[in-house]
Design a protein that fits this description.
241 residues; alpha/beta; 2 domains; 11 strands; binds zinc ion
């Protein structure tokens, strides 16, 4: 059962729009806010719709706090985006960017002392940026492939295929056919975080869910997984570039 309808709550001179979902499986009223600042309230089947409004009214201080957090996150993402093409993170370390424009069949980069030296085909800003992304995607392919093989062996699991993706929402995923997808942006993360994501997706081969047993398996191979999850939450803006 999935009734969605937009409602409005007026408090002083502020308006809060929210939607209600009735879920016969939930036991309590629940409120969530997504990145677009959309408020969703889930209520159990036997609770009157009116209760959702009362609940929201009670939660307004929390909602406002959450809105500020989302705004801050957005701002950080914008700042990061502006900075990233002057400096770049590679395996958790920050480098300045040195551009060498030349004719090349494949954009590439080398690690200097403090900079990444990119060899790219000449073009305008947007073009060069895409060339750099291509170079980083190739690097991601190599880094992720080798590390996935290593951990699959350790965990005694078999995956089917690996794809490196350019998506702005997910770090990784595992399909029902055991195909693994990883975001190239993972090469910006510290190695331990990158490896945690690999272990996480590999663990889904055995447990296609986020059950207790799934997390136990992850913990066995990535004991500090909680701090890596925290790191990823704090660096979500890296996904937006
Ligand atoms: Zn997962």
């Amino acid at each position: 059962m999935n009734d969605i309808e937009i409602r409005k709550l007026f408090i002083a001179d502020e308006t809060f729009e929210y939607s209600i979902r009735v879920n016969k499986r939930s036991k309590y009223i629940r409120i969530t806010i997504d990145e677009e600042k959309k408020i969703k309230i889930t209520i159990p089947l036997f609770i009157p719709i009116k209760a959702a409004e009362d609940f929201l009214r009670e939660k307004i201080p929390w909602v406002k706090k959450k809105f500020i957090e989302i705004e801050n996150k957005r701002q950080r993402a914008d700042e990061f985006k502006a900075e990233i093409w002057k400096k770049v993170f590679y395996l958790g370390k920050e480098y300045t960017i040195d551009l060498v424009e030349l004719q090349t069949t494949r954009p590439n980069f080398y690690i200097g002392k403090h900079s990444l030296i990119f060899h790219v085909n000449p073009g305008d800003r947007e073009w060069v940026r895409n060339e750099m992304i291509r170079a980083l995607m190739f690097a991601a392919q190599k880094e992720i492939f080798l590390r996935t093989e290593k951990h699959a062996k350790r965990m005694n699991l078999k995956f089917n295929n690996i794809k490196i993706k350019n998506q702005k929402t997910l770090w990784g995923s595992c399909s029902s056919k055991n195909n693994l997808n990883f975001n190239w942006r993972l090469v910006m993360c510290p190695v331990a975080v990158l490896e945690y994501i690999i272990i996480h997706e590999l663990a889904h081969i055995k447990h296609p869910n986020h059950s207790r047993r799934f997390w136990n398996l992850v913990e066995e191979y990535s004991p500090d997984f909680n701090s890596h999850r925290r790191w990823l939450r704090e660096h979500q803006h890296m996904l937006k570039i």
